[in-house]
């Protein structure tokens, strides 16, 4: 049965898990809606799940890393088109957003209007939030300003690291996209304005919590929160955090919350008390 939509084309931009789930879902629904489907990779990743999905399913795949070239290509679209921006850092120019034949939706990994911009999982952990979530919203000329389509919430535990929170948010994003897809395609989604302060803080990609430095006299729980907030596992999004130990600048190589009975002395190790039962174990090295 053909589903209701006036979109002739769907174009997906992004990378990573959310984009892969969205791409696969939109491909699976293509026969029902009858739209053309294409994918654009703007930021190159060596192990691209999206390229694999495109190859296996015959989905047109384009890799356009130049911002001007990408903007020009999208501006040439004449069909009524839905652009889905999932884990995508390309800023759509006003000339594209304002085109009557173009509709753009975007996934943001925080509960807008709070924490707009980049690396939201980092900032919600660093700021000590107990709850966060995801937002799918329509794109306007302003960054992360468009009307909200759907949001989902989740808790932040006291030991949660940035990469763990990111994985949880990606799961929520895929779930929310599937729930709202039919309304988006029929252009009947009930949205709400963000109602944000025009002077709200925009988090930039180059910003690092605490400027990447802490004092050994800081509260251990604050140090632990900082370290968790920048911990993306094997993805080196942030440089190692730094401090001063024995009068020398030091970078933290690893950290871990452990019980008191697990303490073992060794070179390049230091322990800070988190509470009566646990310690924050830091592995460090002096910088050259």
Compact summary:
This protein has helices at residues 16-28, 30-33, 49-57, 67-75, 94-97, 120-126, 162-185, 220-229; strands at residues 9-14, 36-41, 61-63, 81-86, 102-108, 131-138, 148-155, 242-245, 248-259, 269-273, 278-286. It has 288 residues and is of the alpha/beta class.
Any descriptors?
26% strand, elongated, single chain, alpha/beta, 288 residues, Rossmann fold, 28% helix, four-stranded antiparallel sheet
Describe the structure.
The protein has 288 residues and is α/β, with parallel strands linked by helices. It folds into 2 domains: 9-185, Formyl transferase, N-terminal domain (Rossmann fold, 3-Layer(aba) Sandwich); 210-286, no CATH class. It is 28% helix and 26% strand. It has 8 helices and 11 strands. Strands 3-2-1-4-5-6-7 form a 7-stranded mixed beta sheet. Strands 8-9-11-10 form a 4-stranded antiparallel beta sheet, covered by helices on one side. Helix 1 packs parallel to helix 7 (162-185) and helix 6 (120-126) packs antiparallel against helix 8. The longest helix is centred in the middle third of the chain and has 24 residues, at 162-185. The protein is elongated, with a radius of gyration of 22 Å. The termini are far apart.
